[in-house]
Amino acid sequence: MKELKLIGHHVKRHWWKYVLGIVALALVDLMNVYIPQFTGEITDGLKAGTIDMDGVWSLVWKIILLGGGMAVGRLGWRYFIFGTSLTIQRDMQRDLFAHLETLSMRYFNEHKTGDLMAHFTNDLQAIRMLMGPTVVTAFDASVMLVMVLGKMMFYVDMRLTLVAVIPLLLIMYGDYAYGKVMHRKFFAKQRAFSDLTDQVQEAVSGIRVIKAFVQERKELAAFAKVNQMNQDKNMDVARTQALFLPLLDLIIGISGLLTLLYGGYLAIAGDITLGQFEAFNLYIAMLVWPMMAAGECITFISQGMASLKRVQVILEERPDIVDGPEARGVEGLKGEIDLDGLTFAYPGQDRPALENISVHVSQGETLAILGRTGSGKTTLANLLLRLYNTKRNTVRIDGRSLYEIPLAVLRRDIAYVPQDSFLFSDTLARNIAFGVETEDMTAIEQAARDACIHDNIVDFPDGYQTMVGERGVTLSGGQKQRSAIARALLKDAPILILDDALSAVDTDTEEQILHNLRENRRGRTTIIIAHRISTIQSADHILVLDDGRAAEYGTHEELMALGGIYRRIHDKQQLEKQLREEGGAAS
């Protein structure tokens, strides 16, 4: 099974720790089975008068020494087995996170965040239980069972052992059926937990929207539905355990009753001594753990295997965007961009998002892209970053197809400010320095000045050390955008892409940022995606997209002279600006 191969890879790295842990566990079990024997010898010796107090103390000291050895052994197997299971959990978390980072955008578009979070919590916790407590439970129960049965048969009586064990054989069949049922139920339980996690994550992320639209009751009802489903699946598991474990106790109780009846008869008949009868009852009590452990072990195995299967599904996922054999020999980008008949449709879509786009941008020039929502502007930015694959040679940088440029080089040398300016839960300084290796405060402050955010930052009580809330919720929309622009400017990449990154700033600030861009990015290529004509009118080239097609292309003056889409958008925005100014003057 692939799941066993996955876990075997991690066990192989720590096999010696498991060996030491199992040896310590076996020694503990071996010492444990001698305690009832020594107790029985004391009873028989005292009854027959064949042992004095020195003999009693000798056996008592043996029991004390065994107890001390068992304490040391239990410390050892806990350290080696439980500690190793925690190490394996840590390694699997690291491997899973590293693998997720390699996956393409398609995967994250198709899978919810809450479901992925459940793999890092519940699933890896279940795998840790499989590699820790389950190993101990399975080995300890098996060794203890063999040792205890051996002592019962050879130290006490074979006939009494058979009578006591016959009811316990029923547990073997019950364990098999229980394991199959638990595997199915736990898999459903994990899916329900994933849905619950996703519901909570989405609601918390969108809490401001929920409050703004007064939809708390609606969201509470939606949460109640998935919460109830999660409870139902957990109750299915609990009911199965609640049914199986008492049946286990009943069978063990029947075995104990038969021991009392038949063992008492053998003791009265003189076939076994009183001390052997006492030891046998202690051995029966010791058998309770292996029998109870069998059900617990099957639960852990069922849960662990179900979780391994869920994790394995992710690890088997392969990225769509990878470096091919031709991606070599490129150390860096200069900034010349060619789009040659670019046509692209998203996976699963028949209608292309972009169709037959051809554009040439020389190094150091600025290309502006204008168009209505859904016209393909952001798609074009995504394709330049190779977040999705295109037909070969339809996108070239510095005369090379994107497939010939290593992904690490491509994305290192393109600075990108997306529409949704994402900030991490960290200080403003670290957010701005996210794309560079070292935090140079002088460079950070200069990038913030160029993005017109420095004055806002220094007004904060903690300045650049101000902690940004999750996804930047503590900042205004304009502050988030300008922080993201500062992050891109600090990267100082040959190519800069601004995807509607000035939509939340006022026109005066926008003009200042654009001025700074022209001054500081001389000789570097810039692509500006925007809705406002004022943002792009000074660009070297302007591409107007309409429904994924290149409707118009040229400079501001050339497009105005055409009298087409660009001119209509310009005139409309000018009218809106005039009306706002007149409205402001009237008030």
Describe it.
The N and C termini lie far apart (75 Å). The chain is an alpha/beta fold and 587 residues long. The chain is built from 21 helices and ten strands. The protein has helices spanning 2-13, 15-48, 53-102, 105-110, 113-131, 133-156, 158-165, 169-205, 207-212, 216-269, 274-316, 377-384, 407-412, 428-432, 441-450, 454-459, 477-491, 507-520, 533-536, 556-562, 565-586, and strands at residues 337-344, 354-361, 366-371, 395-397, 400-401, 414-417, 495-499, 525-530, 541-546, 549-554. 66% of the residues lie in helices and 9% in strands. The radius of gyration is 36 Å and the shape is elongated. Helix 7 (158-165) packs antiparallel against helix 10 (216-269) and helix 10 (216-269) runs antiparallel to helix 11. The model has no long low-confidence stretch (mean pLDDT 83). Strands 6-7-8-3-9-10 form a six-stranded mixed beta sheet, sandwiched between helices.
Major sheet: order of its strands?
Answer: 6-7-8-3-9-10
User: In which range does the helix fraction lie?
Assistant: 55-70%
Radius of gyration, rounded? 36 Å
The overall strand count is 10
SS content category: alpha/beta
Which whole number gives the mean pLDDT? 83
Tell me the β content. Answer: 5-15%
Shape: elongated
Helices, strands, pairings?
Layout: H1 2-13, H2 15-48, H3 53-102, H4 105-110, H5 113-131, H6 133-156, H7 158-165, H8 169-205, H9 207-212, H10 216-269, H11 274-316, E1 337-344, E2 354-361, E3 366-371, H12 377-384, E4 395-397, E5 400-401, H13 407-412, E6 414-417, H14 428-432, H15 441-450, H16 454-459, H17 477-491, E7 495-499, H18 507-520, E8 525-530, H19 533-536, E9 541-546, E10 549-554, H20 556-562, H21 565-586
Parallel strand pairs: 3-8, 3-9, 6-7, 7-8
Antiparallel strand pairs: 1-2, 1-4, 4-5, 9-10
